């Protein structure tokens, strides 16, 4: 933890210490979690993962939301209570936009929306260790492994409107430590089922994979279409947003990065 | 005289309407309503004395609160936004998120404004939208506007469904409409809480009412995110609905020509 203090710039806000030892402080940069530990803290560029404590918590959760642990321990009743609460809120919303919540088509919509939203945010409560299911293997393989064209569907945290696209993930194993391929896609799924920002989603997937495998390098590229931009606002349907996150050899060696990028571009191998 | 409407006193108000068209509308309204035809206030005919898809003030199949919403002042509109924003805050807390973190701080207001935008179709007036863009042209062949992107909200899950709509008609007596008005009609009916079948039918009915053409054909293909992002989770799937009136319904060759013209390229 002291390592991160050393590389912080010396500004007035630095003297604010994060001092509740019982609570795991989000020392990862604001840009990575979206949670600001000190409200006045200015935005900092994401630090290198070497200076950041583990992205995977003691109980397997990764960058959970504030209420994620509570949600994880939900009983049947408390889960039903959540659904009730969200349904009530949706009924209010339907009335406010001038619709009739009692007409046939909308009668069960509050409950359906509530369940849909709980599904769209289930990524918070998933445990990485449980997801991985011990699918780490030893293989005599030290070349690039890529899983590409993984469909991801996430919710924009600013408008709560979906953004959807494809994510391409690659890594180079170290000492032959490889991971089950579906686990890579499951990681992407877990981080996408949240209220996200595309930059953060890409980075979190990369960081989690880096932490789990400790490979020579991790590369993640995501291209997505944001419906907050397509359906409203500027209304540009053809546009795509592309973000990437490179760690290890993919960051240091441009030839490796180029190879990854050309392999994900090729279609119909 | 078709009598699928339960209230037969409505018939004597419609003497000026051609019986065949009235029958068509009755059929469409009775079959297409969200509620059973026996309820007084069916969704598609909120005022049961009026059978036209376009009401006296230009609204078309408005929601229950649409007229209220239309007469919003700045203050009442702000009040709507605030109420929706409060509801969204509750929702964010319920799913276990922190509504006070930086990224979510203004999200309730943003969502409220986005949702008001996504449901603005209720309060639009067709007459205002058409802007008197009806013209006389010596043209009696098919006119098609295709590949119109539409974005709507599924009324069952409040999750978007998006796709393309293709609209065609054959003018009667040279009465043609400004082409962008066709797309604007599609836009107006899509900015609501919709079901794809109903959206297709409402567009067709409105165009039929406005133009009184020889026929109207509407085909829509869309991808439903309630099916793609959750539930059965099938991303490649598309739902296709169509609505044919007039000569498109009665003549198979006309229909085929329309369908092949929207398929090419």
UniProtKB/TrEMBL annotation, chain A:
<keyword id="KW-0547">Nucleotide-binding</keyword>
<feature type="region of interest" description="Disordered">
    <location>
        <begin position="32"/>
        <end position="63"/>
    </location>
</feature>
<comment type="function">
    <text>GTP cyclohydrolase 1 is the first enzyme in the biosynthetic pathway leading to folic acid.</text>
</comment>
<comment type="similarity">
    <text>Belongs to the GTP cyclohydrolase I family.</text>
</comment>
<dbReference type="GO" id="GO:0003934">
    <property type="term" value="F:GTP cyclohydrolase I activity"/>
</dbReference>
<dbReference type="InterPro" id="IPR043134">
    <property type="entry name" value="GTP-CH-I_N"/>
</dbReference>
<dbReference type="GO" id="GO:0006729">
    <property type="term" value="P:tetrahydrobiopterin biosynthetic process"/>
</dbReference>
<protein>
    <recommendedName>
        <fullName>GTP cyclohydrolase 1</fullName>
        <ecNumber>3.5.4.16</ecNumber>
    </recommendedName>
</protein>
<comment type="pathway">
    <text>Cofactor biosynthesis; 7,8-dihydroneopterin triphosphate biosynthesis; 7,8-dihydroneopterin triphosphate from GTP: step 1/1.</text>
</comment>
<dbReference type="InterPro" id="IPR001474">
    <property type="entry name" value="GTP_CycHdrlase_I"/>
</dbReference>
<keyword id="KW-0342">GTP-binding</keyword>
<dbReference type="InterPro" id="IPR020602">
    <property type="entry name" value="GTP_CycHdrlase_I_dom"/>
</dbReference>
<dbReference type="Pfam" id="PF01227">
    <property type="entry name" value="GTP_cyclohydroI"/>
</dbReference>
<dbReference type="GO" id="GO:0005525">
    <property type="term" value="F:GTP binding"/>
</dbReference>
<dbReference type="InterPro" id="IPR018234">
    <property type="entry name" value="GTP_CycHdrlase_I_CS"/>
</dbReference>
<dbReference type="GO" id="GO:0008270">
    <property type="term" value="F:zinc ion binding"/>
</dbReference>
<keyword id="KW-0289">Folate biosynthesis</keyword>
<dbReference type="GO" id="GO:0046656">
    <property type="term" value="P:folic acid biosynthetic process"/>
</dbReference>
<keyword id="KW-0378">Hydrolase</keyword>
<feature type="domain" description="GTP cyclohydrolase I">
    <location>
        <begin position="87"/>
        <end position="265"/>
    </location>
</feature>
<dbReference type="InterPro" id="IPR043133">
    <property type="entry name" value="GTP-CH-I_C/QueF"/>
</dbReference>
<dbReference type="GO" id="GO:0005737">
    <property type="term" value="C:cytoplasm"/>
</dbReference>
Automatic annotation (TrEMBL), chain B:
<dbReference type="InterPro" id="IPR043134">
    <property type="entry name" value="GTP-CH-I_N"/>
</dbReference>
<dbReference type="GO" id="GO:0008270">
    <property type="term" value="F:zinc ion binding"/>
</dbReference>
<keyword id="KW-0378">Hydrolase</keyword>
<dbReference type="Pfam" id="PF01227">
    <property type="entry name" value="GTP_cyclohydroI"/>
</dbReference>
<dbReference type="GO" id="GO:0003934">
    <property type="term" value="F:GTP cyclohydrolase I activity"/>
</dbReference>
<dbReference type="GO" id="GO:0006729">
    <property type="term" value="P:tetrahydrobiopterin biosynthetic process"/>
</dbReference>
<dbReference type="GO" id="GO:0046654">
    <property type="term" value="P:tetrahydrofolate biosynthetic process"/>
</dbReference>
<keyword id="KW-0342">GTP-binding</keyword>
<dbReference type="GO" id="GO:0005525">
    <property type="term" value="F:GTP binding"/>
</dbReference>
<dbReference type="InterPro" id="IPR018234">
    <property type="entry name" value="GTP_CycHdrlase_I_CS"/>
</dbReference>
<comment type="function">
    <text>GTP cyclohydrolase 1 is the first enzyme in the biosynthetic pathway leading to folic acid.</text>
</comment>
<protein>
    <recommendedName>
        <fullName>GTP cyclohydrolase 1</fullName>
        <ecNumber>3.5.4.16</ecNumber>
    </recommendedName>
</protein>
<dbReference type="InterPro" id="IPR001474">
    <property type="entry name" value="GTP_CycHdrlase_I"/>
</dbReference>
<comment type="pathway">
    <text>Cofactor biosynthesis; 7,8-dihydroneopterin triphosphate biosynthesis; 7,8-dihydroneopterin triphosphate from GTP: step 1/1.</text>
</comment>
<dbReference type="InterPro" id="IPR020602">
    <property type="entry name" value="GTP_CycHdrlase_I_dom"/>
</dbReference>
<dbReference type="GO" id="GO:0046656">
    <property type="term" value="P:folic acid biosynthetic process"/>
</dbReference>
<keyword id="KW-0547">Nucleotide-binding</keyword>
<comment type="similarity">
    <text>Belongs to the GTP cyclohydrolase I family.</text>
</comment>
<dbReference type="InterPro" id="IPR043133">
    <property type="entry name" value="GTP-CH-I_C/QueF"/>
</dbReference>
<keyword id="KW-0289">Folate biosynthesis</keyword>
<dbReference type="GO" id="GO:0005737">
    <property type="term" value="C:cytoplasm"/>
</dbReference>
<feature type="domain" description="GTP cyclohydrolase I">
    <location>
        <begin position="85"/>
        <end position="263"/>
    </location>
</feature>
């Amino acid at each position: 933890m002291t390592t991160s203090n050393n590389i912080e710039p010396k500004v007035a806000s630095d003297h604010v210490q994060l001092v509740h030892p019982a609570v795991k402080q989000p020392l990862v940069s604001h840009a990575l979690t979206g949670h600001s530990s000190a409200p006045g803290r200015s935005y900092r560029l994401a630090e290198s993962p070497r200076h950041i404590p583990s992205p995977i918590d003691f109980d397997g959760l990764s960058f959970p939301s504030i209420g994620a642990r509570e949600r994880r321990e939900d009983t049947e009743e408390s889960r039903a209570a959540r659904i009730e609460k969200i349904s009530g809120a949706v009924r209010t919303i339907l009335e406010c936009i001038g619709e009739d919540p009692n007409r046939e088509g909308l009668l069960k919509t509050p409950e359906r929306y509530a369940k849909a939203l709980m599904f769209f945010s289930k990524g918070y409560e998933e445990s990485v260790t449980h997801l991985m299911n011990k699918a780490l293997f030893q293989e005599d393989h030290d070349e690039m492994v890529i899983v590409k064209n993984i469909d991801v569907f996430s919710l924009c945290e600013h408008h709560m409107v979906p953004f959807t696209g494809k994510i391409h993930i690659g890594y180079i194993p170290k000492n032959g430590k490889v991971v089950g391929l579906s686990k890579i896609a499951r990681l992407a799924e877990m981080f996408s089922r949240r209220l996200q920002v595309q930059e953060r989603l890409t980075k979190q997937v990369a960081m989690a994979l880096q932490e789990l495998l400790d490979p020579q390098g991790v590369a993640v590229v995501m291209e997505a279409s944001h419906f907050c931009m397509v359906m409203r606002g500027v209304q540009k349907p053809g546009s795509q947003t592309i973000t990437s996150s490179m760690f290890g050899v993919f960051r240091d060696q441009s030839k490796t990065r180029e190879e990854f990028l050309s392999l994900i571009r090729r279609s119909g191998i």
